[in-house]
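Predict the 3D structure for this chain.
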Amino acid sequence: MAGADNFGVENGMGHRAVEWMNSYSKEKKMEFKAKLEGYQISSKNFGDFEIISWRGNWSDARKIIIKASTKLSMKVIESGYHQKDNLLISFFGFGKEFGKVYKKGNYIGTIVLGMRSGKWYIKSEKPG
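Done. Predicted structure below.
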């Protein structure tokens, strides 16, 4: 979720999700490539998520992660939303980053993310 280039997929679905998203983006000629980051984050309300990093077009990435949630019947975190705050605070990474949680393509809640030792963790969460 660092700088809006990471998402989360339901624990146990990481390899399948990355394969599906990469093949879907290639088939649809979209600018997107994902890989597993090798760590997880846990949430009380939504469960555990494997973190994936991606590169490519932000608009394509948002469409693909939500489509993957629907097609693979899994929960995903679509991150990269930032608190509208002082630009200087956001530039240095002190602002809040939010993620939307989807299950089977439907919005189910919001999480607030923090970073510790270069890895994301969930600060708070709210079912939606």
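Residues 10 and 49 are 5 Å apart (CA to CA).
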